[in-house]
Design a protein that fits this description.
The complex is a heterodimer of chains A (269) and B (351). By secondary structure, chain A is mainly alpha-helical. Chain A has 13 helices and no strands. In chain B, helix 2 packs across helix 3 (109-122) and helix 2 (94-104) runs parallel beside helix 4 (138-150). In chain B, strands 6-7-8-3-9-10 form a six-stranded mixed sheet, sandwiched between helices. Classes of the chains: A mainly alpha (269), B alpha+beta (351).
Chain lengths: 269, 351
């Protein structure tokens, strides 16, 4: 009885999570005309040609490349800088340790709508407006607090004896960070990599405000192109979404084992 | 010659009122097994961490092999340390854990391999080299931690309560192995513990610490038989020394009803200290008597708690394997005066 209930709940949840995905997946290989006739029908003819059409004709290859550059760059910097900051906050006792930590963390409380106008002005001043580097820097700044927060709590749980042992074994603080802290924190790092990748891959608001150039648009902006004032090309939107989702799914599949380790972490002992 | 000298070594943590370690002076000879013993918070671990270079030294001087090393970083002091938590690197195999310190020192590959295998063989770890620490038992982890120190072939070994995480049976076994190891390597070792059995059985000398200060330094039996102050007398020994208020009256010392012929001291009312094994139940020439409050048969011996007549003090008496005594019974007691000590209650030192 309890098992049946559990199964029912799991089925419902799976439907809830996977349903929309499947729906978009079916729409991505149907034309807009077919979709408007019957929203939920199974594809009669599989229009695979929509994918190359979106990729080449609607410049998805450019958007994809831009997204890849911005997100990979931001996530790489976030992971390394975030881990270094977290390592210091967790490991070293220094004056204003908690104050600095609080200042970094408190940036989380401001919603993007509040900061975006001043951000826009700053980027214009530094000639970073409408550039991928500018967007990358903004992404790093926006996600750094959360990254440091997640990693700090993990680094703090690494027993300090390990660092002492490594110091006696002859390693410098810098080497200890790379050879002891980072490998041990791998599950937590995977967590932040997935989290940041997904969030930034889907990010729309900063991108739409800070990027104007057609050739510099990221994927979420590209999808917007199919939304006109008068009509929406639902079929192509679905195709574009599928193209956008694939890397996220890959990243998740690659890091998920580590992610689960991170969530169940008592991994240090 | 790997000697370690501590000269008035002190440690004050920022913001703390009291010194964590208060002017500790200690000379550890080459090849000596020195035990730092004391209750938790007595400063013994902090002292060890200062020797290791993991804590900065607030004042005083530390020398290894006669060279002042106050400002030498831990990695250049040529010491190895075994931690209570073992501190094995969880992401590395046993082999890598053992080799980690050697790789840093630019020793060539083949030599590292050879030394790691040799140490692993002596510690019975040869079959475990591929395993990660989480797949090892407590005893095996302890061996790896030990191996990591041995493989480095350091000048000085430091141990920070290395056996306290093991269960009782393993602990006795490892104690024996550590003693053997010390004899085989002949290296200078400094060993921190709160366990007096470890201190008594392993140490060439014991340094007893209390409140950040050295209470007494000496060979185990010497410290046990001639405690320098009330703290050592009450800390060392299980059960500890009996401490009874007493008073000189004329030429004799009065302890409760007992009148003891002891050389008169300058202190009028000293504290009379006597170990439980130095009190006999003796009807032939008793000094005093008392009422038995409790009998604890421990198999090899029997501990009696006796309320002395005429004074509100209990003494513990270590009796033989079987004692024919019941609670409530009155027994005659004789003190072995040669083994007794007097302490000054003001200075707390032995007179």
């Amino acid at each position: 009885m309890r098992r049946a209930l559990l199964l029912a709940v799991l089925t419902l949840f799976t439907a809830f999570a996977a349903g929309p995905f499947l729906w978009v997946a079916t729409m991505s290989v149907r034309t807009t005309t077919e979709i408007s006739l019957d929203h939920y029908a199974w594809p009669e003819k599989w229009h695979w040609e929509k994918f190359p059409a979106a990729w080449f004709n609607s410049a998805y290859n450019v958007y994809f490349e831009n997204s890849l550059l911005v997100v990979l760059g931001a996530v790489a910097v976030l992971t390394v800088v975030g881990a270094m900051a977290a390592h210091c906050f967790a490991r070293y006792r220094f004056r204003a340790n908690r104050l600095l930590y609080f200042v970094i963390f408190s940036a989380i409380i401001f919603p993007p709508q509040i900061t975006i106008i001043s951000l826009f002005q700053i980027l214009v001043q530094y000639q970073l407006y409408n550039s991928l580097i500018g967007l990358t820097l903004v992404y790093i700044a926006v996600q750094l607090p959360l990254t440091v927060y997640i990693l700090e709590s993990f680094f703090a749980r690494i027993p300090s004896d390990l660092f002492d042992a490594a110091r006696i074994d002859g390693y410098s603080e810098w080497q200890i960070f790379w050879k002891v802290s980072l490998p041990i924190a791998a599950p937590a790092l995977a967590t932040t990599v997935i989290l940041n990748t997904i969030l930034l891959w889907n990010e729309f608001l900063y991108a739409v405000v800070l990027i104007t150039d057609e050739a510099k648009r990221t994927l979420p902006l590209g999808i917007q192109r199919f939304m006109g004032d008068q009509l929406e090309d639902v079929g192509m939107i679905a195709t574009g979404l599928m193209i956008a989702i694939v890397p996220v799914v890959l990243i998740y599949a690659f890091f998920s084992e580590k992610l689960i380790q991170g969530m169940t972490a008592g991994a240090v002992k | 010659m790997a000697t370690v000298s501590l000269r008035s070594l002190s440690k004050r943590y920022p913001g703390a009122e009291n010194l964590a370690v208060d002017s500790v002076s200690l000379e550890v000879a080459h090849g000596e097994f020195m035990v730092l013993l004391g209750p938790s918070g007595c400063g013994k671990s902090t002292t060890l961490r200062m020797i290791a270079g993991l804590e900065s030294i607030s004042s005083g001087e530390l020398a290894i092999e006669g060279r002042r090393v106050n400002d030498v970083p831990a990695k250049d002091r040529d010491i190895a340390m075994v931690f209570q938590s073992y501190a094995l690197y969880p992401h590395m195999s046993v082999l890598d854990n053992l080799a980690f310190g050697l790789r840093r020192r630019g020793i060539e590959r083949g030599e590292i391999e050879r030394r790691v295998r040799e140490v692993a063989a002596t510690l019975g770890l040869a079959d475990l080299l591929k395993r990660k620490p989480h797949a090892l038992s407590g005893g095996q982890r302890q061996r790896v931690a030990l191996g990591r120190a041995i493989v480095r072939d350091p000048k000085v070994f430091l141990f920070d309560e290395p056996l306290s995480n093991l269960d009782a049976a393993l602990r006795v076994g490892m104690r024996g192995e550590l003693i053997k190891l010390h004899h085989r390597l002949g290296a200078t070792m400094i060993y921190v513990t709160h366990d007096q059995v470890e201190a008594m059985t392993m140490g060439d000398r014991i340094c007893i610490m209390h409140g950040g200060k050295v209470a007494q330094i000496g060979a185990p039996l010497e410290v046990y038989r001639n405690p320098a102050d009330l703290f050592v007398a009450s800390f060392l020994g299980s059960p500890p020394t009996n401490l009874i208020p007493s008073r000189f009256n004329g030429e004799a010392l009065h302890v409760g009803e007992a009148t003891l012929r002891l050389p008169r001291s300058s202190v009028q009312e000293p504290i009379f200290g006597i170990r439980p094994e130095d009190i006999r139940i003796d009807g032939a020439a008793p000094h005093t008597e008392g009422e038995i409050l409790a009998v604890e048969p421990l198999g090899a011996e029997t501990i009696l708690r006796v309320r002395l007549t005429g004074i509100a003090a209990d003494v513990l008496v270590r009796g033989p394997r079987s004692v024919n005594a019941k609670v409530g019974e009155r027994v005659p007691l004789a003190y072995d005066l040669a083994a007794a000590h007097l302490f000054d209650p003001a200075t707390r030192k032995r007179i």
